[in-house]
Amino acid sequence: MDLRDPSKRPRGTPFPSQGDALPMPTFETRDGGACRTTRSAELQRGSGAIVSAMTSAPWYVEAFRSDYREVYAHRNLTAAREEVRWLTEDVLSGTRGVVLDDCCGFGRHSVAMSERGLDVVGIDLSFDLLRSARELEGESDAAALLRGRLAQADMRALPFADGAFGAVVNLFTSFGYLGDEGDAQALAEMARVLAPGGTLVMDLMNPAAIRRGLVPSSREERDGMVLEAERRLENGGRRVVKEVRLTTADGAERSWREEVRMFEPDELDERLLALGLRVERRAGDFSGERFDPAEAARQIVVARA
Ligand SMILES: C[S@@+](CC[C@H](N)C(=O)[O-])C[C@H]1O[C@@H](n2cnc3c(N)ncnc32)[C@H](O)[C@@H]1O
């Protein structure tokens, strides 16, 4: 597909801009079909309230602000292109319909998957990150394809119809943030929006490898910025907590906490099965290498609806 051909580009709502009300995701698929959204007005307003009604924002709101991209500069489009290679050439190659990038951040995997011809829609809670997706237009022609296709939404209440997607991907440890109930809701939502036969890909930490290799503290200086992190395990080794302090070149300081519940392979399989999803494969990295529980860097789960 010639990505520069305007007639091939999807139509949709524009990227969110500062001051917009929560944008309403009304997408059309690349072939002109419908990727229907339902319940969107209520749920969009509802999910906004989850955040704004809180007196202090939860960690997953504080952590993913606009400086996230500078702090984690290596989590960029170049890395995402590598990360989606095996996914698009193998796991998602037979996908029929639209792919949902659930927790898309600033859309790096959405863009990388679009470059490879997939029809992608993304949602994320972070307005700052969604807004910065525009910056990828300088790096990829495909980024323009994502205009109007990245929306602010809460993964616990996806504003899409049942079975709307041929595949759902949840990449780079974007699960395990929301407490027992919230995590269960988020997983149920991924299952709900998958079409029968659709594919779910979750890219999570491998708990055994994290427990073995946890670095208790680190300090990194880069481009005049200092990033200090303390890490520990809690909850019987099931949760990783990271306290981060960032000092920018102008001396400004910002601290936040990251707190992620890890999932053992068996536990995840059971939860997915209860939602009608069967785990077909588990890889240990983005090359598709077999998952070795003792060694694997990642836990990449491929399940079928
Ligand atoms: C580790 S980042 C990964 C982002 C992206 N997948 C990537 O690889 O660049 C986790 C993402 O989850 C998003 N997130 C956290 N809680 C969320 C929620 N309840 N609903 C939707 N997105 C959420 C954050 O805003 C953040 O962009």
What do you see in this structure?
By secondary structure, the protein is an alpha/beta fold. The chain has a single domain (60-305), classed as Rossmann fold (3-Layer(aba) Sandwich), CATH 3.40.50.150. It has helices at residues 40-52, 59-62, 68-71, 77-91, 108-115, 127-132, 179-193, 207-213, 265-274; strands at residues 27-28, 34-35, 99-102, 120-124, 150-152, 165-170, 194-205, 217-222, 225-234, 239-247, 253-261, 278-283, 298-304. Strands 5-4-3-6-7-13-12 form a seven-stranded mixed β-sheet, with helices on both faces. The chain has a four-stranded antiparallel β-sheet with strand order 8-9-10-11. Helix 4 crosses helix 5. The longest helix has 15 residues, at 77-91. It is globular, with a radius of gyration of 19 Å. Residues 1-24 and 38-55 have low confidence and may be disordered. S-adenosylmethionine (SAM) binds at residues 60, 64, 75, 103-105, 108-109, 124-126, 129, 154-156, 171-174, 177-178.
